[in-house]
Design goal:
The chain has about 110 residues and is mainly α. It has a two-stranded antiparallel ribbon.
């Protein structure tokens, strides 16, 4: 069976494309970014990764026992060390953290 150059190039291109797509699909997903206290959103919300370090004079709304793990916005279990919070876009917040948007989970 004789193969033309066009058929060979098309088959080669298809094989390389398939390999690239398969390799990308099998790659391990990147870990979600964690919110840093210096992030502009975190600064605006008064976020701290450890609720024990909240400036109580600056954030009078803070009360002992409040942390991201028991906030209604925290989208993980309270036992998860980090989880997504819609206040921080695609970034995760610490379960032990706190911010001024805190709202007690029902």
């Amino acid at each position: 069976m004789k193969t033309s150059r066009r058929t060979f190039l098309f088959a080669s291109l298809s094989a390389v494309s398939t390999l690239a797509v398969t390799r990308q699909a099998l790659a391990a997903p990147a870990a979600p970014a964690k919110a840093a206290e210096t992030d502009p959103t975190a600064v605006a919300l008064g976020y701290v990764a450890d609720a024990a370090k909240v400036d109580k004079k600056k954030y009078a709304k803070y009360a002992a026992g409040q942390d991201c793990g028991n906030c209604s916005f925290y989208q993980g279990k309270a036992s998860d060390p980090w989880a997504h919070c819609p206040m921080f876009g695609s970034k995760q917040v610490a379960s032990k953290g706190w911010c001024n948007a805190y709202n007690k989970r029902a």
